[in-house]
Amino acid sequence: MDMKVYEGFRSDEVTDEMLDEAAKLFSENYGVWGEHAAERTGKFAKAGRPVRLSKERLRNEYLPDKISSYVRVTVNGHLAVVHQGYRERGLAAGLLDEIRLDGDDVYGVMSSHPAACLAASRAYKRPIDTASLDFMKDNAQSIMKASPVGYVRDAKLRGSLFGSEDSSGLVSSVDTGFFVDHEEPLQALAWQGVVPDLGLVHRAGMLGLEPKYELQMPYKRRDNAIFFD
């Protein structure tokens, strides 16, 4: 039987060695740059090349001092998420459950992968087909602006939920200007059979856009807001 170990750390407890391991895992497993990445982001983002993350960027942009936390899961001693060999095992939902704190009542996910939204809905006890579009419409902007993470705070809301003039085919999403390839996420979307009305079906590749899926939900007995990606 596999041995799964979940661990949580305050940002000031995270060592360079831990970040080295996390950055290596991300760079080898997260995904590849999309078709329009080089022209929108820079020559380094050549289509088909792996998206890479340094430990310095991970600490400076994703782990603001004193107000963030880092959680990880190992399986038989190996760092698991987002390793391709450990997907579809419910590990991401366990990770998100690990960051829940007394006093929080709103959680949100902003990710290029629909599986992240499904993991959030499981971890925070809100089936995705019961998510409130009205709640997201009324609160998405203010919650994003409160985030200490720059690319979350500065992301632009996209989809018909946030503007009747939107013709992209999106419902609830955000544009972060991060042009990762969507082939694998769209395959996962089809495999999962996610409810289209939540905006988890889109034509980003056709339109040259780079939206991330967005899901926000209240959580019972909690009363702050956090974001993760």
What would you note in describing this structure?
This protein has 229 residues and is α+β, with helices and mostly antiparallel strands. It has nine helices and eight strands. The strands form two sheets. The protein has a five-stranded mixed β-sheet, with helices on both faces. Strand 2 and strand 3 form a beta hairpin. Helix 1 crosses helix 3 and helix 4 packs across helix 5. The radius of gyration is 17 Å and the shape is globular.
Short summary:
The chain is of the alpha+beta class and 229 residues long. 33% of the residues lie in helices and 17% in strands. The chain is globular, with a radius of gyration of 17 Å.
What is the element layout, followed by pairings?
Elements: E1 4-10, H1 16-29, H2 37-41, H3 55-62, E2 69-75, E3 78-79, H4 91-98, E4 106-111, H5 114-123, H6 133-145, H7 150-153, E5 156-158, E6 173-175, H8 183-192, H9 204-207, E7 211-218, E8 225-228
Parallel strand pairs: 4-8
Antiparallel strand pairs: 1-2, 2-3, 4-7, 5-6, 6-7
Helix pairs in contact: 1-3, 4-5
